[in-house]
Specification:
By secondary structure, the chain is α/β, with parallel strands linked by helices. The chain is built from 28 helices and 19 strands. The chain has three domains: 8-289, 2-enoyl-CoA Hydratase, Chain A, domain 1; 316-502, Rossmann fold; 509-640, N-(1-d-carboxylethyl)-l-norvaline Dehydrogenase, domain 2 (Orthogonal Bundle). The strands form four sheets. Strands 12-11-10-13-14-15-16-17 form an eight-stranded mixed β-sheet, with helices on both faces. A six-stranded mixed β-sheet has the order 1-2-3-5-7-9, sandwiched between helices.
Length: 693
């Protein structure tokens, strides 16, 4: 068991000009550098409680109590590292009640309480601030959020009760439900101020001094704090209904946390704080003892730790410097790559293509994206001009002569890619790394015609490139350690989460998604109604239903990947006749949307899709899809395509936003018994990503 890093409540007394008596200033600090946020475990709450005891002993000399954090961090909530050690529901209730008791002292204090939110405030950290009577906020605070539903919890130390009664139910739904379920979005300081979470905002340089000055002005009556009246009745009901619609859309009803949070938000309209806190304690206890939370914490651990220390990556000292990047192709994917390389590496990036129009279009795309950043004030005019100057185009590949890293992003055809890479190899230095953005083709076969096959590495990005964090780094049979180390170094600089995969058809993410999608499409081929098949697999945690996902990816791309995998593994993959008919007809997908936004099955698709006479039920489609996933994952692991089940889950979480509450996929397959039923064994050890036993 890892020892708790204790957040201590450091107490000092300050004099404020014009204010008789002292201000008791509590600083939350875990004694670590600013990259390790302060959290509340049992000892941390005890320290805060003790500081309040000391302050109360000095009454009436203390005129105000203020709480702030160490540089850049206010506090980021409960210490969740101890959750696996919670063995009973009674223990879980006690944890919720303790947090409420300590934080409630700020609300019930007869001495005015102030939160000086100097940096990130998430979860319990924000709830502590909400318990205070007044709040100042630093303009430099990078993240304000209640992310609990993202992990499988609810804001359990007052958030569901205090926030809606401060800013209104609708804004509270945005913070607690919408932001959390949309990949854990955070509010920036200005947004938090506009929402009404803080009363006033000051610049970071003199934040504490200005906060103390403002505190004095509030206490002497020279500054009034006015808060808007909160809408109730139909307004509150509509907000909760909006939250339920978001939860339905994002989770399909398969994650309990957002629905418990919505029950608590509904309660907050009329309940007093004591009643609401007791309800939060019960909800928190139920969720702390749930399988979904254990899987969510496993997911969080993968994203925060394993993603930053990729299994099997070579020693980073082997990486070569990259001072110029070449990109073969100037289409949409290549243009997105050019933008990313220029923005993150800040080195010259040159695109090539077969004609000037395509080159100009690719460079123009990058320049427009930079202009968008400028308009949004995310870059200065000087920075925008520098970035634009870095990106150029050419019709000839000799511009790659001084490049250290060249990636191809041309048509997904082996012969085309081999020819392009051979042309590049002829002009670059012997130490230049060559990369392919292939999504399914063999890196080993692609390298076979190179003079130096050891310099080729797979560098598989996911679309949209700027959004999805996964980067599958593919090691071909000949790829050497220096090439691989350089690829990982570049990936880290691009702020991508790299997973090492061995060369295998469609690698990990696309292979598993194609297998699962193939089973759903195959069920329709057999005669299952589209709607039944599409709704059946919601509990797997895909970010979109299968046929919406097909529409997003594009039927032609999905068919190409399916055919590639069918050629490699004809016993497990097939190319659907219905999908072939869809592509041949030039259809974008199986659904159409009316002017009212309502989705419906395209009758032309219904007519052209060959159908059998065997209609499966929803549970039968689900069993078929998850059994196929379990089989394919076991084969991936046995073949050594990735190092461990954790890497499979990381790929699904980061490559396409699979559900945190399922832990990606392997914890779900274990807890439902599918992994043992299909493969004879679990993927993870008992107690990993699940309740013990």
């Amino acid at each position: 068991m890892t020892a708790e890093v204790v957040t201590r409540a450091l107490l000092r007394y300050l004099a404020v000009p014009g204010l008789p008596g002292d201000v008791a200033l509590i600083t939350l600090d875990n004694g670590l550098d600013h990259t390790r946020p302060s959290t509340f475990g049992l000892a941390g709450l005890s320290s805060l409680d003790g500081a309040l005891d000391e302050i109360m002993a000095r009454t009436p000399k203390v005129r105000a109590i203020a709480v702030t954090g160490k540089p850049f961090i206010f506090a980021v909530g409960a210490d969740l590292s101890g959750v696996p050690q919670i063995g009973t529901r009674e223990q879980a209730v006690e944890i919720g009640a303790l947090g409420h008791r300590v934080f409630r002292r700020f609300t019930d204090s007869s001495i005015p309480t102030f939160a000086f939110v100097n940096g990130a405030a998430m979860g319990g950290g924000l709830e502590l601030a909400l318990h205070c009577h007044f709040r100042t906020l630093s303009a430099g605070a990078a993240a304000i959020a209640l992310p609990e539903c993202f992990l499988g919890l609810v804001p359990g130390w007052g958030g569901t009760q205090l926030l809606p009664n401060l800013i209104g139910a609708d804004k509270a739904v945005t913070v607690i439900i919408d932001n959390a379920l949309n990949q854990n979005r955070m509010l920036k300081a200005k947004q938090a101020l506009e929402f009404g979470i803080a009363d006033v905002m000051f610049e970071p340089a003199d934040f504490l001094e200005e906060s103390l000055r403002w505190l004095g002005a509030v206490l002497d009556g020279s500054t009034a704090v006015n808060r808007p009246e909160i809408g109730r009745g139909d307004t509150w009901t509509a907000a909760v209904a909006r939250g339920r619609a978001i939860a339905d859309m994002k989770t399909g009803g398969h994650a309990p946390a957002p629905y418990r949070a919505l029950e608590l938000l509904a309660l907050a309209e009329t309940a007093d704080l004591t009643t609401g806190a007791a309800a939060e304690d019960q909800a928190l206890a139920d969720l702390l003892m749930s399988q979904e939370l254990r899987a969510g914490l496993y997911s969080f651990d993968l994203v925060q730790k394993r993603a930053k220390r990729p299994a099997g990556a070579p020693d980073k000292s082997l990486a070569r410097p990259v001072t110029k990047v070449g990109i073969v192709g100037a289409g949409l994917m290549a243009s997105q790559l050019a933008m990313l390389f220029a923005q993150r590496l800040e080195v010259p990036v040159v695109l090539t293509d077969v004609d000037q129009d395509r080159v100009d279009k690719g460079v123009g795309y990058v320049h427009r994206e930079i202009d968008t950043l400028l308009q949004k004030r995310r870059v200065s005019h000087d920075k925008a001009n520098r970035l634009k100057a870095l990106v150029t185009g050419s019709l000839t590949k000799d511009v790659f002569a001084d490049a250290d890293f060249v990636i191809e992003a041309v048509f997904e055809e082996m012969s085309v890619k081999q020819a392009v890479l051979a042309e590049v190899e002829a002009v670059v230095s012997t130490e230049c790394v060559l990369a392919t953005n292939t999504s399914s083709l063999s890196v080993t076969e692609m390298a076979a015609q190179l003079v130096h096959p050891d310099r080729l590495v797979g560098f598989h990005f996911f679309n949209p490139v700027a959004v999805l964090p996964l980067l599958e780094v593919v090691r071909g049979a000949a790829t050497d350690d220096a090439t691989l180390a350089t690829a990982f170094a570049v990936g880290r600089t691009l702020r991508k989460s790299c997973v090492l995969v061995q060369d295998a058809p469609a690698f990990v993410f696309n292979r598993l998604v194609t297998r699962a999608l193939g089973e759903v499409i195959g069920a329709v081929d057999d005669g299952t109604p589209f709607e039944v098949a599409d709704r059946a697999v919601g509990e797997l945690g895909l970010p979109l239903s299968p046929f919406i996902l097909l529409q997003l990816v594009g039927p032609a791309v999905a068919l190409h990947t399916a055919e590639s995998l069918q050629a490699a593994f004809p016993d497990r993959f097939g190319a659907s006749p219905g999908l072939r008919a869809l592509v041949a007809a030039g259809k974008a997908g199986v659904y159409t949307w009316g002017t009212d936004g309502q989705q419906s099955l395209d009758p032309e698709v219904e007519a052209l899709w060959p159908r059998g006479a065997t209609a499966l039920t929803g549970p039968e489609v689900l069993d078929r899809a998850r059994s196929a996933l379990a089989e394919e994952i076991r084969i991936l692991l046995d073949d050594g395509v990735v190092a461990a089940p954790e890497d499979v889950d990381l790929c699904l979480l980061l490559g396409g936003g699979w559900a945190f509450w399922n832990g990606g996929i392997t914890p779900y397959l274990d807890r439902t018994g599918v992994s043992e039923k299909v493969t004879g064994r679990r993927f993870l050890e008992p107690g990993v990503a699940s309740l013990p036993g």
